[in-house]
Amino acid sequence: MIFDEQTHQRAKEIIARYGRPRSALLPLLHLVQSAEGHVSLDGIAFCAEQLELTHAEVTAVVTFYSMYKQRPCGEHLVSVCTNTLCAVLGGDQIYDTLKAHLGVGHEETAGIPGEPGSVTLEHAECLAACDFAPVLQVNYEYYDNQTPESATELVDALRRGERPAPSRGASLTDWRTVEMELAGYPEGLDQQVEGPSAAEETLVGLELANARGWSAPGMPERPPPLPAPPPPPEKT
């Protein structure tokens, strides 16, 4: 049984965090993915039953957000940014190289999904790391300043069972463990975070402002009054 007693108990705990049960749907879907490796029809039914929603209401959320996978995911999820800045700096080439190297397309898996060494590849919209473009993520951890060669070496290491250290942030685990963390169960996460969350490139602007004495204008104690509405048009 995929959704065992512990999963049911955790679902109840998640729902109890919210004033309205339906507000728990997003973390509950992460819990489902941690249990079955994607969101299946059974997972949709589980969430609908727990939250007293229709299957259609749950499906609408699953199909809206790209973070919910409708096909079984690999041990690792590799997300290559192909948005504008990363794309022009080599993101498209990295993605095309990995597609050819792994023999898969978008949201397809090299290896048996869920098994050790399996890798699911996807192209992603902006990963919010333009300072380090081109970037990719493995299980949502950042690998900065990538090239086709370094990205290929990275996925080969993952397939060998290795877990190369991300550029910053928490150490690498597997995708299902991360899904459990996103559901609100980050066991040992404080101990996992070893590197800084910000890098030198991100702080250049702050350091320059401090050196030159720049600062943003302060907020007024009271907001300025709203302008008077325009007069109504004259009737003709």
Give a brief rundown of this model.
With 236 residues, the chain is of the alpha+beta class.
Question: Please, could you describe this protein's structure?
Answer:
- The structure is a single chain.
- This protein is α+β, with helices and mostly antiparallel strands and 236 residues long.
- Among the domains are: 5-64, Arc Repressor Mutant, subunit A; 76-174, Glutaredoxin (3-Layer(aba) Sandwich), CATH 3.40.30.10.
- Helices cover 43% and strands 9% of the residues.
- The chain has a five-stranded mixed sheet, with helices on one face.
- α1 runs antiparallel to α2 (25-36) and α2 runs antiparallel to α3.
How do the strands and helices of this protein lay out in sequence?
Blueprint: H1 5-16, H2 25-36, H3 41-51, H4 55-64, E1 76-81, H5 84-102, E2 108-110, E3 119-124, E4 136-138, E5 141-143, H6 148-159, H7 175-182, H8 189-192, H9 200-212
Parallel strand pairs: 1-3
Antiparallel strand pairs: 1-4, 2-3, 4-5
CATH class of the domain at 76-174: Alpha Beta
Strand ordering within the main sheet:
2-3-1-4-5
Q: Give, in order, the helices and strands.
A: HHHHEHEEEEHHHH
Radius of gyration: 22 Å
Q: Which structural class fits the helix and strand makeup?
A: alpha+beta
